[in-house]
Amino acid sequence: MQIYLDTANLDEIREAASWGILSGVTTNPSLIAREKGADFKTTIAEIANLVDGPISAETISLDAPGMVQEGVEYAAWHPNVIIKIPSTIEGLKAVSELSRQNIRTNVTLCFNPTQALLAARAGAFIISPFVGRIDDTGVDGMQLIREIVTIYRQDPEITTKVLSASIRHPRHIVDSAIAGADIATCPFKVLQLSMKHPLTDRGIEQFLADWRSRSE
């Protein structure tokens, strides 16, 4: 399973990229807006300089012609740009047209298997089920990943990648991998937590203490 970073913060991307584990980056209008004063196009270009992999840039139009227009514009910014499109009927129309133009799409805000199936049929490159937000409703969000993976694997014509989104904690990463997701996109803090364990810290302290006592 590949690991993407879900942020538009260049410092976070630069740091995570230095770990050698990043395969891509996902952004959305909220993440871009969080970076005060950041220009959308410039930010995407700077991310492309830091990470050699898919970079999701989301449209803001609600109608298919508007999504297609924005998608064509964004795709011209860099070969790695993937156009994020919402899981709506208008979104399906846009995905289908962009696919015909060989522009890759990431269908976002997916909350049920039928949205995922229709997005794949429309030509989506990536589907993004939001596991954390489903968990918030009291339903097991990871079950959606399992269902989509099962549906996709039963149809050899479907090549759409399953991206586990709305990751809230390290266990979501583990469960996504077990469920068969192709990608998990994570906030920077979750990636940091993924490499933390008290026994690791305790082990390092003990090793160092033993080494120091050796010369005393």
Q: What does this protein structure show overall?
A:
The chain has one domain (2-214): Alpha-Beta Barrel (TIM Barrel). Helix content is 52%, strand content 18%. It has 11 helices and 8 strands. The chain has helices spanning 10-18, 29-34, 40-50, 64-75, 89-100, 113-122, 131-135, 141-153, 170-179, 188-194, 198-214, and strands at 2-6, 22-26, 55-58, 81-86, 105-110, 126-129, 161-164, 183-186. An 8-stranded parallel barrel has the order 1-2-3-4-5-6-7-8, surrounded by 8 helices. Helix 5 (89-100) packs parallel to helix 6 (113-122) and helix 6 (113-122) packs across helix 8 (141-153). The radius of gyration is 19 Å and the shape is globular. The N and C termini lie far apart (47 Å). InterPro entries: Aldolase_TIM, TAL/FSA, Transaldolase_3B/F6P_aldolase, Transaldolase_AS, TSA/FSA_arc/bac. One of its GO terms (biological process) is carbohydrate metabolic process. One of its GO terms (cellular component) is cytoplasm.
The H-and-E topology, N to C, reads as EHEHHEHEHEHEHHEHEHH
Proportion of beta-strand residues: 15-25%
E-strand count: 8
How many DSSP helices?
Answer: 11
**Unreliable runs, pLDDT <50, ≥5 residues?**
none
pLDDT averaged residue by residue: 96
Outline type: globular
Distance between the termini: 47 Å
Question: What would you report as the Rg, rounded to the nearest angstrom?
Answer: 19 Å
CATH class: Alpha Beta
Write the CATH homologous superfamily: Aldolase class I
The largest β sheet comes out as:
8 strands, parallel, barrel
Helix content: 40-55%
CATH architectural arrangement: Alpha-Beta Barrel
